[in-house]
Design brief:
382 residues, alpha/beta, Urease, subunit C, domain 1, TIM Barrel, eight-stranded mixed sheet, 13 helices, 16 strands, 23% strand, binds N-(iminomethyl)-L-glutamic acid, binds fe (iii) ion
């Protein structure tokens, strides 16, 4: 058995029900799993020691929504937006063209760089969506790349209808042949339910076909305007409804009643100069909330969960503790994982040592690299 002790922790966030935060604490990891947490003075010896020097230790971030696998560059589109152009779903097709043309090894190398960047900023679990292939072979290729990065792989063939393709035929392809071709690689299915992408009936057809194959459901819901996405997520028992920028009181009640996680992605709103999601209404109504990066080349080209947390505190009126919980435990709930997103005994030992006395500094010191160390599965990886 290999043991690691992290001791002299000034503030340890475990999300334990009784004592979610310990002070002057230590944590013992055995075989990659949290085995003990308690007062630093009582910490047992171990093979390996990480001295936190009274810094704050938090669970590794769980990023439940990314589009990490793609090729090309859309900085010109971003610059045009800075000059006043609005965002539209059609920009996705630019990335599709570049992605189809890229060899698998290039897609993998690019995605690995982004995954490494995410890990450096404390992300120890993440989801990856396909959706920049939009044909059978390329969607499969994207999920093959994703399979080398993460166990959480979401098929997003229903991102937009590709240029020059009949929409009814495309929806049939996605929910039939394409889904069959990726079913062994995907763990979930997602649909961009939005004006300019897929309507409620089309989205329901694709999601139901995924559910019939045993996949978890996520929905890009109510991002650019009001729409049927959130209600559909509730109706179908989806794991999450993502974005939720334009939700009505009925949408909020339906999400709460169905226990659907609202995955909020504030950098998408930051980067598209859009209104922010009503996090307070969702939280106050009792909807489970997660925060995610939405890392993608069109609307949110960041892997930084610390930046997401900072924005959530500044723009979504979340407290630092709410934001941290949403970026860790909330993400884990959206991915239906019980072993990550917290540091209770039995959790996978994924943690971040912050170069700060508390999680408040994630918002208080925006844009500053506060990650002192990252441990994943008990291994010190940064
Ligand atoms: O989550 N909303 C759909 N998909 C992405 C944007 C994709 C793109 O513009 O390339 C999102 O914001
Ligand atoms: Fe997205």
């Amino acid at each position: 058995m290999r043991a690691l002790v992290v001791d002299r922790i000034g503030r340890l966030v475990t999300w334990d029900d009784e004592r979610p935060v310990l002070e002057d604490a230590a944590l013992v990891v055995e075989d990659g799993v949290v085995a003990w947490a308690g007062p630093s003075a009582q910490a047992p010896a171990a093979d390996q020691r990480l001295d936190a020097e009274w810094r704050c230790v938090v669970p590794g971030f769980v990023d439940a929504h990314t589009h990490l696998v793609f090729a090309g560059d859309r900085s010109a589109e971003f610059a045009a937006r800075l000059a006043g152009q609005p965002y539209a779903a059609g920009g996705i097709r630019t990335t599709v063209e570049a992605t189809r043309a890229a060899p698998a090894h290039e897609l993998l190398a690019r995605a690995q760089r982004l995954a490494a960047e995410a890990l450096r900023s404390g992300t120890t679990t993440f989801e990856v969506k396909s959706g920049y292939g939009l044909d059978v072979a390329t969607e499969r290729r994207l999920l093959e790349v994703a399979a080398q990065l993460t166990p959480h792989r979401t098929f997003l063939g229903a991102h937009v209808v590709p240029a020059g393709v009949d929409r009814t035929a495309y929806v049939d392809l996605v929910r039939g042949q394409m889904l069959d071709a990726v079913a062994d690689l995907a763990t979930a299915v997602d649909v961009f339910c939005e004006v300019g992408a897929f309507d409620g009936d089309e989205s329901r057809a694709v999601l139901a076909a995924g559910a019939a194959r045993g996949l978890d459901l996520h929905v890009h819901a109510n991002q650019l305007g009001p729409g049927p996405g959130a209600l559909l997520a509730a109706e179908l028992g989806a794991a999450s409804a993502d974005h939720c920028t334009h939700v009505t009181d009925d949408d909020v009640a339906a999400l709460r009643d169905a226990g659907v996680v609202a995955v909020l992605v504030p950098v998408a709103e930051f980067s598209t100069r859009s209104p922010y999601a009503p996090a307070r209404r969702l939280l106050d109504a009792g909807v489970p909330v997660a925060l995610a990066s939405d890392c993608n080349p069109g609307t949110s080209f960041t892997t930084s969960m610390p930046f997401v947390v900072a924005l959530a505190c500044r723009e979504l009126q979340m407290t630092p503790a709410e934001a941290l919980r949403a970026a860790t435990q909330g993400g884990a709930t959206a991915l239906r994982r019980h072993d990550v997103g917290h540091l209770r005994v039995g959790a996978r030992a994924d943690l971040v040592v912050l170069d700060a006395p508390s999680e408040v500094h994630l918002a208080y010191r925006p844009g500053v690299d506060l990650v002192h160390a990252v441990v994943r599965g008990g291994e010190v990886v940064r």
